[in-house]
Structure formats: C-alpha cells, structure tokens
Amino acid sequence: MAAITVYGSVLSPFVARVLLTCGYKGIATELSMPKDGIKSPAFLKLNPFGKIPTIKDGSTVLYESAVIVDYIDAKYKKKKLIPSAAKAMGQARLISAISAEYVQTAGLKFFRMKRANQNVPADIEATKADLTKGMDALEKTLSSKKFAAGPSVTIADCFAIPALFFAINASALFGIADAIGSRKKIRAYWDRMQKDKVAGKILQGMSDRMKQLLAG
Ligand SMILES: N[C@@H](CCC(=O)N[C@@H](CS)C(=O)NCC(=O)O)C(=O)O
Is 0.85 surpassed by the pTM of this model? Predict the structure, then answer.
C-alpha cells in the first residue's frame, strides 16, 4: 500500500489527528509542508482555503481533518476507529467533539495569544474559563479504560490527544502549571498516552516543534 501524502506540520493539532489515525491503523504517511507554501497557487488548487492538513491518497485529494479521518477509516477497513454500534459511536464522537470544539479551541487560543504577544487579562481569563468547562466535560465523558472511549483505540483518541497537548502545554505559557488539576480520568489517560507507542511518538514531535517555535 502506497503511503498517504499528508501536507502539514506535526504541531498542528488538526494534522496530528490525521497522523494519529494513520498511526493507529498502521498506514504509512509522508508528511511535508507544501513546497511553495500553503497559500501558493499550486497548493490552493488542492485546498482552496490554503490550510493544513490536506492529503493525497492516490488520486484522492481531501482537506478538513475530520473529513480526512472519516475517509481514512472508511477506506482502510483494518482496525476500524469509528465504532459501528450506535452507543459506542456516540460516545467516541462526543469525546471527539468536546476535545475539538472546547478543549483544543481554548488551548490553541492560548498558543496564538502567546505567539502574537497578546496579554489582555480579560482574554486570558475568558480562555481559562473556556478551558475549565471543556476539561470538566472531558473528565465526565472519558472512559477509565486504556483508551479515551474504552479498551480499544477509537477516533476519540485521535481528537483528544492533540487537544490535551495544547490544553496542557499552551495554558502553561500563561502560568497554568497543571491544566489537568484534580481530574483523575484525564490524568491517568494522559499518563498512559505518553507511554503509548503511536501517541508518544506524535506527542514528542509536537513538543519538539512547539519548543523550536517558541524559541525562535
Ligand atoms: N477546519 C480545519 C482547520 C485547519 C487549520 O486551521 N489548520 C491551520 C494549522 S493549525 C492552518 O492551516 N492555518 C493556516 C491558515 O489558516 O492560513 C481542519 O480541521 O482541517
């Protein structure tokens, strides 16, 4: 099976979702930034929004990370990540939505404020409050088993892992020493994911890249 070309950088949580999906399904990827940049005419032909991730899988070109994740899981049947039973699917999708819409959005906001050198106290407080709400919902929804939605890896892990990376590491840039706090399920999950072979490698890549960007 030929590798899927993924245009993007591992630090993007949207790209990381796709890399985790491929990693857990055992699909090879070739990750690179588009040669002439994401707003180049050549790349805009692939993705009119000029965003990453964008993938090429044979003759198929797709963008929008959630769509890409669904496509990969539908096309490559081995190790399905989207449960077929309604209840399990709902649980996995709910964790994915909480992670993407609330936890990751707040984490990314912290990161973008830092990079833009924005220190508006009202914005910082509002983002902290948003992060708290997202993390509380995630704590209630997360399973206590090995993976986010149960004993097996699902799409929920592909969304929760990058979201938690930003929630924890970007909020730390604004003095939040421990974004997990007393949330026991998230704490145990996060500890397990550092040691997980697929997640651990991607988390290391995200961490290295974040340090590089903040340093320079
Ligand atoms: N909804 C898109 C969001 C992708 C996105 O915003 N990617 C960022 C990188 S984290 C990007 O390409 N930003 C460049 C830009 O918006 O110009 C998805 O899920 O793929």
Answer: yes
